[in-house]
Amino acid sequence: MFRLNVARQFVRAARMQPALAAPRAIQPAAAPVRMFSSSPFSRKDDYNRDDVDAATTAGEPGESGAHEGQYARTQDSIRVEYPEEEDLPRSQPVQGRGGVHDKRTLGSFSLEGRVAVVTGGARGLGFVMAQALVTSGADVAIVDMNKDEGQLSAKSLIDTFKAENPGSSKIPKVTAHFCDVSSPTSVNQSLTEILKEHDKVDHLVTSAGFTENYDAISYPHDRMQKLWGVNVDGTYLYAVAVAKHLMSRNSPGSIVMIGSMSGAIVNVPQPQAPYNAAKAAVRHLASSLAVEWASAGIRVNCISPGYMLTALTKKILDDNPELQKQWTSLIPVGKMGRPEDLMGAVTFLISDASLYVTVRCGSARRRGLHLHVSVDRAMSRRVPGVRKIVCLICEASLGWRNRESWPGSQLKWSLKPAHVQ
Ligand SMILES: NC(=O)c1ccc[n+]([C@@H]2O[C@H](COP(=O)([O-])OP(=O)(O)OC[C@H]3O[C@@H](n4cnc5c(N)ncnc54)[C@H](O)[C@@H]3O)[C@@H](O)[C@H]2O)c1
């Protein structure tokens, strides 16, 4: 089977060679040249090779129609640069969901008495997540490059809480602090400031981050370094600073990193290779730190949102209506997420409701059942006695197993609710 595949690829490669030299003319219905093939179809007289080959990799570009691959490619023409601050409207608190209620719920979701830091909390997803934590009982320190907006956002969270909880005996403390998360000095200074105001920190959400769309060939190097500096270094630096503080107090805690589905799949059509790589780094950083700090009682998880309609994405889509159509056409539920759709996820992962959850990367597209398959791959043939386990849903490679622990001749599969990556 393996040899036949290699042979087929060899034949296909051989047939593609002349096409590189000169464009191929429209071919007659009968197949002119076929060196040899293992395909049973080739032996049928009525088989029209061109119809089938046009839709495969044997066809010339465009041979199977104008639609060919159009929703699965990046387009270099799309170049979205980060909008100017003054072009972005401020995020507004979610209204009407934070008041007292008498519905029964698990006490372990409560964050009463806890202090959480949210980086990038002045706006967008970070702001809504900060509101979720305040609503669930925490005091919150908003950390952001944009301190003015951070202060306005802190005030609006307190005002909304007061309006939705009239007569509440305890008003949450919400503060705002300047920080450039890509700078270790700035991170340490802001944490010192936070500890002066709040005495301690129990939780961290890292939402400071940004994306830009340049094709890889033209990406300015300094912008790429900045992007990685904020998305990757910034996530790492704040997580380490908070973990050090927790360890010095000998206290458990939890950290939620905001990744992106772009860390697991290649988003289209906008080209954004450095952003995708940065979010893949955040995802694996969460996994690595979760393992490293598990013994200290510090849980680390990662939320990988899909397309969320924040003020920033709304501005980008208002300027590029075609992009919105393409994005939503790729979303199984047919619409973008609202920032408040992540309030439950962040509260769950930060709170004691998820005490035995660490290293969980929740992705909007990849929740649900995971299909683990044990396959005899080419490589395992070279190492007799082992088989490769892969997840067909999220493509994670789950390592190797001895044949004895998962016996069977060719292929075995099992459905799992989720797996630790
Ligand atoms: N919006 C989406 O559709 C989406 C989807 C997946 C992942 N994400 C990720 O979620 C996070 C938040 O995105 P958003 O859409 O809310 O963006 P946003 O621009 O609305 O908010 C980001 C916040 O981070 C702050 N910030 C930027 N650089 C900083 C720095 N160096 N130091 C401190 N603060 C800084 C900004 O001032 C801003 O307040 C990002 O990491 C983003 O990559 C967003």
UniProtKB/TrEMBL annotation:
<dbReference type="InterPro" id="IPR020904">
    <property type="entry name" value="Sc_DH/Rdtase_CS"/>
</dbReference>
<dbReference type="InterPro" id="IPR036291">
    <property type="entry name" value="NAD(P)-bd_dom_sf"/>
</dbReference>
<dbReference type="GO" id="GO:0050085">
    <property type="term" value="F:mannitol 2-dehydrogenase (NADP+) activity"/>
</dbReference>
<comment type="similarity">
    <text>Belongs to the short-chain dehydrogenases/reductases (SDR) family.</text>
</comment>
<dbReference type="GO" id="GO:0019594">
    <property type="term" value="P:mannitol metabolic process"/>
</dbReference>
<feature type="region of interest" description="Disordered">
    <location>
        <begin position="37"/>
        <end position="74"/>
    </location>
</feature>
<protein>
    <recommendedName>
        <fullName>NADP-dependent mannitol dehydrogenase</fullName>
        <ecNumber>1.1.1.138</ecNumber>
    </recommendedName>
</protein>
<keyword id="KW-0560">Oxidoreductase</keyword>
<keyword id="KW-0521">NADP</keyword>
<feature type="compositionally biased region" description="Basic and acidic residues">
    <location>
        <begin position="42"/>
        <end position="52"/>
    </location>
</feature>
<dbReference type="Pfam" id="PF13561">
    <property type="entry name" value="adh_short_C2"/>
</dbReference>
<dbReference type="GO" id="GO:0050664">
    <property type="term" value="F:oxidoreductase activity, acting on NAD(P)H, oxygen as acceptor"/>
</dbReference>
<dbReference type="InterPro" id="IPR002347">
    <property type="entry name" value="SDR_fam"/>
</dbReference>
